[in-house]
Amino acid sequence: MEVKTFYEQLGMGYEDVSGRLGSDALIKKFVIRFLDDASFTRLRDGLQENDGEKAFRAAHTLKGICLNLSFDTLYKPCAEITEALRDGRITEGCNTLFLEVEKEYNRLTKAVRSILIGGETK
Amino acid sequence: MKYQILIVDDAELNREILKEMLLDEYDVLEADNGKMALEIIDKEWEHIHAILLDLVMPVMDGFEVLAGLQERKVVGKIPVLVISGDNTSRNEKKCFDYGVYDFIGRPFNSVLVKLRVKNMVNQYVYKNRLEEKVQEQTAVLRKAYETVKMQAEELEKRNQDIIEVLGAIVEYRDVESGEHIQRVKGYTKILAEAFRVQYPEYGLTENTIDTIVAASALHDLGKIAIPDRILLKPGRLDKDEFEYMKSHTIRGCEILESMKVEWNPAMKKISLEIIRHHHERYDGKGYPDGLKGDEIPISAQLVSVADVYDALINERCYKDAYSKEEAFHMIMNGECGAFSPKLLETFRSVKKQFEKLS
Fold first, then answer.
1. To the nearest whole percent, how much of chain A has pLDDT over 70?
2. How many angstroms separate the CA atoms of A105 and A66, rounded?
3. Contact B107 A67 (CB under 8 A)
4. Do the Cβ atoms of B20 and A20 come within 8 Å?
5. Interface ipTM
6. How much is the pTM?
7. 4-aspartylphosphate-modified residues are where (chain B) (predicted)?
8. Residue A25 is part of which domain span?
């Protein structure tokens, strides 16, 4: 039940991810593994280092993971920043978009920790 | 043995998801960028049964991997399934142009991906096995063909030897003709080669001409069965003697047929044509069958011109020698035999070559 709760609390499509990946146990495993994924950090670093290519690839990867795991709320800003970075140039708007990515990323990871990992130790 | 799948994706999490669903049926190799993927393919390509390929990756992207696969000629041997979030038709088309098996957009349904992987692996394993089989069979066939060809060449060579021996026997028996057989061969060759060029509709080939020339040595094979009193009689033969003499055409065929020798079919056929029909006439008044026009095999027509020409310009026990000029006109005017107008045209065109040889 906790996986369903997690998706519903964040307003993301549980039915969709469940239909595509199958069991809750698998979804949970991958969602927790998401905490170790470095794409978000690389995106932030790429923007800070003014490395447009690196930022684009990281955003693109993050977007792909969001699609696979039905992280709808994080997917939206990821898709936007990916398109903004597609030609490899960092523009003014990118930083604003990143704030949106960061906000959703933090909300998501916090929920993973509290609902899924917290739920495990109960 | 489990089939092996190579997963190429820069995000470990994506690889994990794919791996999770494939691991119970396949062995999995992983690469987190295109360069690493090509290195693995170079080392392991014979043991990789499918590639799952992401497009956007650091170091070397998916399109570069596809180009690398094309260069290595493994496209068509290992199926590639592209999995990408950039599923625009432009990207998809580009991938298909590189020869990928299929394109799946993100987010993917893991059950469907698994089914597609299963389909493409089975299809390619089957296809590759078939191709291997075809190659093996082709090699076997080629070898068999070589053997048969060698045997045919061997047979032809032995046939040539036998014809040579028979020709020598005829020559020995027919004391007057001496070098007659060698010259008939020479005239036949000159005539046949010119005729082939002037009248391609007769379908003569280099090969057929060689056979006709070799077999022309046998045209009088039947004369070895004609008694001396007729064969070597000075002056004209009476009616009965002449009838007997005519039988050399049929007797020659009987001798050849009675020999327990394995013949190349074309060689035997042409030899029999020449032996039996070299005394036929184009107007149907020849022997033994009275064949008319092109009912007479072209092999026999060619040899009969050569035979008549050589008989005319040399002395025989029953006649003196004519000059080459006289012989030429006698043949052209139909005073000695009757020949196809086409063949006479050819004969006219090689007059000089005949005279040089005689």
1. 96
2. 10
3. yes
4. no
5. 0.82
6. 0.59
7. 54
8. 2-121
